[in-house]
Write a structure and sequence with these properties.
single chain, 123 residues, mainly alpha, 5 helices, 60% helix
């Protein structure tokens, strides 16, 4: 596992750690079952505070990318199916909220497209 923290990056250090581990896990660079370093170990390697790495690990666990097995350590989870389920659930919740607000399908879809462009850039 290779992580690099860019101090000139506008993203906080924990977000850089979270994004890099997430990208590596989803691309297969970090295979399912790969044991991640301890919070303290990774913090020391990266020159970060342990709380910074712990925050990244909590976010990754919340996203279903990693799983903590108590004293056995933290491992890359089989996240594909979990991520798809969470995405579908979020989409369903959005649709229900848009309908309660009285928005048309076209307006709801336009709002999603605008949000996607803002998050992923024009493309």
């Amino acid at each position: 596992m290779t992580l690099k923290i860019d101090i000139d990056d506008s993203a906080p250090s924990y977000e850089q750690v979270r994004a890099q581990i997430s990208d590596q896990a989803r691309s297969g660079v970090l295979p399912v079952g790969y044991r991640l370093p301890t919070v303290r170990g990774l913090a020391e390697t990266l020159g970060l505070a342990p709380n910074t790495v712990a925050k990244a690990y909590r976010a990754l666990e919340s996203d279903g990318v990693i799983e903590t097995r108590g004293r056995n350590g933290t491992f890359v989870a089989a996240a594909g199916a979990a991520a798809e389920r969470e995405l579908a659930s979020a989409a369903q919740a959005y649709v229900e909220r848009a309908r309660r607000l009285g928005q048309s399908e076209a307006d709801a879809l336009a709002a999603v497209r605008d949000a996607l462009r803002a998050a992923y850039g024009e493309g």
